[in-house]
């Protein structure tokens, strides 16, 4: 079989090699192409590869030819093409063996087609030669432009970065065959972005070409172009955009825009008061713009704090100012960034400064006392008007207003306009040893300006209280007591305050010393003992002894008091103990106390009983006016469980039971309005025909008339019984057989206001029915 080969395009001209007969070539040899190319073939089989250029615009273009060496040109052979693409993409001329491409070929979609060829004798229908497999390869042409697959691109780089700093790398992709010439070899270039950026042509790496300041421009758009065929003529290209943002670095220091700030502050402003704000501007952003303010001279009066949200400096008072002491302040303020990198210290060598001038405004201040408090002393029992002390306050303002003094809520002291404090009542240290006063100073020119100062007055002690027994002594002595027996130990107390320890002296009065049956011995330790001065005592003759004990203190002058000691004679037991007498007196005292408690309890019970009695009487008076409603009338109640058949049914139950022994009244037909009115008047005069009900109603009427607490229900009459003598007939529908549809109820309008509602209901209803 002969085979023709189609070489790739060379400068757009396809080359067709001549056909070779496989049966004539039996050894491998090098064959020279007419244009100088050489290739090797093996004799004895068919060369099995075609090269087809892609992207041909025309259709049915010739690819190559299959020809058997047995074909003598008489058109008796038939060529067939088999395999993927046969008949749809590639067709063959069955007589000549020429192969054609009927569709456009794209190497990027499919670069290789494997087909089979067969030669059949058309006269016999048999294959002349066995099937031969061959390959059609689609050669590449530059028909795809480079594409950036990762766009959009965005990069962030710090401002002021040095030249050569890497920014980002962009990469384009070319779908052409990289092994086919320069079709897929790309070169990168900048279309926009000079002179700030540069790009490496082969790698696509973007670098910084010069330093950039974010405060001048914070972002740049760079356009990158990628060309294939290493930029030769006819190359295809693609572009992309890169957004490069500059991040901030702290390359700017804060600067005051104003060289001088003026503020005013009142001298009455308390410490911590904000008097003004200062502001520095920093072109940086975020953390790089945070700043701290300070006072250069470290002022003791003012301070500056930073508002972290607004980055303002707030000038505040560290302590109060005084217009009279200093009315103007001038100081310098600094500002620095809070976060500064060491590499950027060159931008922050010298801090920005500004001057602040504060003018103090004069205020009408309240008076000022010379000292924060006063402490005075005065002896007790000082006479009225005694001098205690003097307070003094001044007006700190320039006008120096006179000061008046006053004292609040004191009955013992007073103060004059000069601040002199005197007594108005005698002082007793034992009642109150200290007095806490509040003195108020008021300006005469402005009474609203006041101030107060505490004054403490200590009352000094004088010896004005004589000593006395420290407690009440209940002393007993046995009838058979011997002479010299100790019966009581006594002590004393003194309400006076002494600068040294108290010392008391005990002795009997002169009369008791001569005639007393008892003696006293001073222990010289502020105690003394009482002893019997004779043997034997009589309970019947002298049951009680009273002796006078004199107690003197060591004060200057010394004071002496007389205290009476009561001694009871006791019929002691065999052991000589006075406990039985003490218990007896205790029981008497307890009995007396018990009687008192019982008397109080009985009185309380009587009072509560009286209160409950009054409440019960009031409750009884509030009982209902008609107590018969609560009485039991069950003997007059009849229960029926049968359901009647209507008004015409008179056999369902005994109507006589409902009328309660009363005579069944004769039903009378209802007549004209005049007859009804006369019957109505008669019915008001006719009462129950039972004497029991008549008596019952009269009794209740009498009870209502005599009860002063009953409400005035004179016009209200209650009837629980329908009498049998009423000429008006029964109002009940039981036993009624006649129809009332033809009756006229207009007569109700003539019966008065009581029947007005019935007249409206029945009169209008009848008219509407008619």
Task: Describe the protein in words.
This protein is mainly beta and 770 residues long. The protein contains 6 helices and 45 strands. The protein has a 5-stranded antiparallel beta sheet, with no helix packed on it. It has a 4-stranded mixed beta sheet with strand order 5-11-10-7, with no helix packed on it. Strands 13-20-19-16 form a 4-stranded mixed beta sheet, with no helix packed on it. Strand 8 (90-92) and strand 9 form a beta hairpin. The longest helix has 43 residues, at 579-621. It starts with a strand and ends with a helix. Keywords: Calcium, Cell adhesion, Cell membrane, Glycoprotein, Membrane, Metal-binding, Repeat, Signal, Transmembrane, Transmembrane helix. The chain crosses the membrane at residues 596-617. It comes from Neovison vison. This is Cadherin 19.
Question: Layout of helices and strands, plus pairs?
Answer:
Blueprint: E1 2-4, E2 20-21, E3 29-32, E4 38-41, E5 49-53, E6 61-67, E7 77-83, E8 90-92, E9 98-101, E10 112-121, E11 127-139, E12 147-148, E13 153-158, E14 166-169, E15 172-173, E16 187-192, E17 197-199, E18 205-208, E19 219-227, E20 237-247, E21 255-256, E22 260-266, E23 274-281, E24 291-295, E25 302-307, E26 312-317, E27 328-337, E28 352-361, E29 368-369, E30 374-379, E31 387-390, E32 393-394, E33 403-407, E34 413-415, E35 420-423, E36 434-443, E37 450-460, E38 468-469, E39 475-478, E40 486-493, E41 505-508, H1 510-515, E42 518-522, E43 527-532, E44 544-552, E45 560-570, H2 579-621, H3 655-658, H4 673-685, H5 691-706, H6 756-769
Parallel strand pairs: 5-11, 13-20, 22-28, 30-37, 39-45
Antiparallel strand pairs: 1-2, 1-6, 3-4, 6-9, 7-10, 8-9, 10-11, 12-15, 14-18, 16-19, 17-18, 19-20, 21-23, 23-26, 24-27, 25-26, 27-28, 29-32, 31-35, 33-36, 34-35, 36-37, 38-40, 40-43, 41-44, 42-43, 44-45
Keywords: Calcium, Cell adhesion, Cell membrane, Glycoprotein, Membrane, Metal-binding, Repeat, Signal, Transmembrane, Transmembrane helix
InterPro entries: Cadherin, Cadherin-like_dom, Cadherin-like_sf, Cadherin_CS, Cadherin_Y-type_LIR, Catenin-bd_sf
Domain Cadherin: 68-148, 149-256, 257-369, 370-469, 469-580
């Amino acid at each position: 079989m002969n085979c023709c080969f189609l070489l790739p395009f060379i400068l757009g001209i396809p080359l067709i090699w001549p056909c070779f007969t496989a049966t004539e070539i039996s050894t491998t040899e090098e064959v020279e192409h007419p244009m100088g190319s050489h290739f090797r073939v093996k004799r004895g089989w068919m060369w099995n590869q075609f090269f087809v250029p892609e992207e041909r615009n025309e259709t049915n273009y010739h690819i190559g030819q299959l020809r058997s060496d047995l074909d003598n040109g008489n058109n008796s052979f038939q060529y067939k093409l088999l395999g993927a693409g046969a008949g749809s993409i590639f067709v063959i001329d069955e007589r000549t063996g020429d192969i054609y491409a009927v569709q456009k070929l794209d190497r990027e979609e499919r670069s290789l087609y494997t087909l089979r060829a067969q030669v059949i004798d058309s006269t016999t229908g048999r294959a002349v030669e066995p099937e031969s497999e061959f390959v059609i390869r689609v050669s590449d042409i530059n028909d795809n432009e480079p594409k950036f697959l990762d766009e959009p691109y965005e990069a962030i780089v710090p401002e002021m970065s040095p030249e050569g700093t890497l920014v980002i790398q962009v990469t384009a992709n070319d779908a052409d065959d990289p092994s086919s010439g320069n079709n897929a070899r790309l070169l990168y270039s900048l279309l926009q972005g000079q002179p700030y950026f540069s790009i490496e042509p082969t790698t696509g790496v973007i670098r910084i070409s010069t330093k950039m300041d974010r405060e001048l421009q914070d972002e740049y758009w760079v356009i990158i172009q990628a060309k294939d065929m290493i930029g030769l003529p006819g190359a295809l290209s693609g572009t992309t955009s890169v957004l490069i943002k500059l991040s901030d670095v702290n390359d700017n220091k804060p600067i005051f825009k104003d060289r001088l700030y003026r503020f005013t502050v009142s001298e009455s402003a308390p410490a911590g008061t904000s008097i003004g704000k200062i502001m520095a501007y920093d072109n940086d952003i975020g953390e790089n713009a945070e700043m701290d303010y300070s006072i250069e001279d470290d002022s003791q009066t003012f301070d500056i704090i930073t508002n972290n949200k607004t980055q303002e400096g707030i000038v505040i008072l560290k302590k109060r100012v005084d217009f009279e002491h200093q009315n103007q302040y001038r100081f310098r303020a600094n500002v620095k960034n809070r976060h500064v990198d060491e590499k950027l210290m060159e931008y922050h060598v010298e801090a920005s400064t500004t001057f602040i001038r504060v003018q103090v405004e004069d205020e009408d201040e309240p008076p000022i006392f010379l000292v924060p408090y006063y402490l005075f002393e005065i002896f007790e029992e000082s006479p009225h008007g005694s001098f205690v002390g003097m307070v003094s306050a001044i007006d700190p303002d320039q006008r120096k207003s006179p000061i008046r003094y006053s004292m609040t809520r004191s009955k013992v002291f007073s103060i004059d306009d000069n601040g002199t404090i005197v007594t108005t009542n005698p002082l007793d240290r034992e009642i109150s040893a200290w007095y806490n006063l509040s003195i108020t100073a008021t300006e005469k020119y402005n009474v609203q300006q006041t101030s107060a100062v505490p004054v403490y007055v200590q009352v000094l002690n004088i010896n004005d209280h004589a000593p006395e027994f420290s407690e009440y002594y209940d002393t007993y002595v046995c009838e058979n007591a011997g002479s010299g027996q100790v019966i009581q130990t006594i002590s004393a107390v003194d309400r006076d305050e002494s600068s040294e320890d108290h010392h008391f002296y005990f002795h009997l009065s002169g009369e008791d010393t001569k005639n007393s049956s008892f003696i006293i011995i001073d222990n010289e330790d502020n105690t003394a003992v009482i002893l019997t001065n004779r043997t034997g005592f009589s309970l019947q003759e002298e049951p009680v002894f009273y002796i006078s004990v004199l107690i003197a203190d060591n004060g200057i002058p010394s004071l002496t008091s007389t205290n009476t000691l009561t001694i009871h004679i006791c019929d002691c037991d065999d052991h000589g103990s006075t406990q039985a007498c003490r218990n007896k007196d205790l029981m008497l005292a307890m009995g007396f106390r018990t009687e008192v408690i019982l008397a109080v309890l009985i009185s309380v019970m009587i009072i509560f009983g009286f209160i409950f009695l009054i409440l019960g009487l009031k409750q009884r008076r509030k009982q209902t006016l008609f107590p018969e409603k609560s009485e039991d009338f069950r003997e007059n109640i009849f229960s029926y469980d049968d359901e009647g058949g209507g008004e015409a049914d008179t056999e369902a139950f005994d109507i006589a039971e409902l009328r309660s022994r009363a005579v069944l009244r004769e039903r009378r037909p209802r007549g004209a309005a005049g007859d009804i009115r006369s019957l109505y008047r008669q019915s008001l005069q006719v009462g129950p025909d039972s004497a029991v009900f008549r008596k019952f109603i009269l009794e209740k009427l009498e009870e209502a008339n005599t009860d002063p607490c009953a409400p005035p229900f004179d016009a209200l009459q209650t009837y629980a019984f329908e009498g049998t003598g009423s000429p008006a007939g029964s109002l009940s529908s039981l036993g009624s057989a006649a129809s009332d549809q033809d009756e006229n109820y207009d007569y109700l309008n003539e019966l008065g206001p009581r029947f007005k509602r019935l007249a409206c209901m029945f009169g209008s209803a009848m008219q509407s029915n008619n």
